[in-house]
Design brief:
Elements lengths: L14 E5 L5 H10 L7 E5 L4 E8 L5 H4 L1 H17 L6 E4 L3 E4 L2 E10 L11 E8 L28 H22 L2 H8 L15 E4 L5 E5 L2 E5 L6 E2 L1
Helix pairs in contact: 3-4, 3-5
C-alpha cells in the first residue's frame, strides 16, 4: 500500500488534525483537551497507512452513564462504515466492551475516556477513538500465523485504505450521533446486539450472555440470577 495517500475529506462538523505516523491519536486528543486546545468535532487521525487510528473529541451534555453509550455507538458506526465499502462476504462482529472482529478474529478496538463529571453528573469532554489493523503486523512471519487476530488485508479488503475508511466512518458516526440524540440508545442497542460475537467477549462461551441492558451494560447469567458488567466502569477517566 502506498504511503502517499490523499488527505481525508471530513464532513462539515469534523475538523481533522493529523498526527504523525509514529504517534498515538488517542493520546494526542487527550493532551489537546487537557490543554484546552480541543473542542467538540476535533478529530485527531494518524498518518500511518498500515492501521486506522483516530480519536474524536465530543462535549456530551448528558450524564456520564448516558455519554458512555457513545462508545458502543462508534462500534456500530464502524460496522456500517466497513459494510458499505467492503466485499459482501466480510463479517463484522463486536466484542464487549470494545473489540472489533472481522470474520471472527480481532482486528481492532474502540477506546473512550470521559473527563471528570461536574454538577448534574455530566462530563465536559469525551474522547472516543478507534484503532484497526489495515495491514498485518510487521512482527508476524507470515499472514494468518495468529488466527485470533487479523487485518483488512488478511480478510481480502486490501483495496480499502486509511483515507477511504476514515472518511466513511466519520460520516457514519455523525449519522449515528444524530439518531442517538433524537431516538435514544435503542437503535444503537439493537444494531450492536445484532452483530455481537457468539461468545460476547467477557461473557465466555457457556457463561450465559444475555445481552445489553438499556445503558449498554453487559448482562450475564449466573447461578442465582443475572448480573451486569457496567459499561461506565470500562470507560477511562481523565
Amino acid at each position: 500500500m502506498s504511503d502517499d495517500l490523499a488527505l481525508p475529506a471530513f464532513p462539515p462538523l469534523i475538523a481533522g488534525h493529523p498526527v504523525e505516523a509514529s504517534g498515538d491519536a488517542f493520546r494526542a486528543a487527550l493532551d489537546a483537551v487537557k490543554k484546552g486546545n480541543a473542542s467538540a468535532g476535533d478529530l485527531y487521525w494518524s498518518e500511518a497507512v498500515n492501521r486506522l487510528d483516530f480519536a474524536l473529541v465530543l462535549e456530551p451534555d448528558v450524564e456520564a452513564v448516558r455519554a458512555a453509550q457513545v462508545h458502543l455507538l462508534v462500534m456500530v458506526a464502524f460496522g456500517d462504515a466497513l459494510g458499505a465499502i467492503a466485499p459482501p462476504i466480510t463479517a463484522v462482529h463486536y466484542r464487549w466492551p470494545g473489540g472489533l472482529l472481522i470474520n471472527g478474529a480481532v482486528a481492532g478496538e474502540v477506546r473512550t475516556a470521559l473527563s471528570s463529571t461536574g454538577k448534574g453528573g455530566s462530563a465536559a469532554h469525551m474522547v472516543t477513538g478507534l484503532t484497526l489493523a489495515i495491514q498485518p503486523a510487521a512482527t508476524l512471519a507470515e499472514p494468518g500465523l495468529d488466527p485470533s487476530t487479523t487485518s483488512l488485508w488478511d480478510e481480502g479488503c486490501g483495496d480499502i485504505d486509511r483515507t477511504r475508511l476514515l472518511e466513511s466512518i466519520t460520516r457514519h458516526i455523525l449519522t449515528w450521533i444524530d439518531t442517538w440524540e433524537n431516538e435514544g440508545f435503542r437503535p444503537v442497542h439493537e444494531m450492536w446486539c445484532g452483530r455481537v460475537e457468539e461468545a460476547a467477549g467477557d461473557a465466555a462461551p457457556g457463561k450465559g450472555f444475555l445481552g445489553l441492558d438499556d445503558d449498554g451494560n453487559l448482562l450475564v447469567a449466573a447461578s442465582g440470577g443475572a448480573y451486569a458488567r457496567r459499561l461506565i466502569d470500562r470507560i477511562e477517566r481523565f
